[in-house]
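Fold these two proteins, one after the other.
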Amino acid sequence: MTTLGAEVVGGLLRIVLHLSNSMPASIRVFPNLLLFTAAITGLVCLSLTPFVYRFRRLPPPTVVTVLAVAVSVLPLAIVLAQSLR
């Protein structure tokens, strides 16, 4: 949930800051901070997913796992795309 929240708020802030050029530089750093937060929490989620399958009696529903992995990989893909640009 933290990863998804950081992605959504960071994306919305990036759009708002792109539309208004009069924001101070200290606020312009905030979307990148949220992207960093999303990437770190995404890595934690990806690293804990195999443990959930290993130690739970019943595995989580496949839809939940797919959504969690997709949300976790998205900020890493964005960071990779930004670094290649």
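Now the second one:
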Amino acid sequence: MKFIKQETKNKANERILKLLAELNSTLDLYYEISKESEITSSEQ
């Protein structure tokens, strides 16, 4: 029984880690775009 619960927890943890990785990559893209637009604005 404990094995099943542990397996479920492991799957949930893997899913959380994948979602966090996606979130981080999305935020990286957002900040890259923000920095590029700031640089473009300051050059004008």
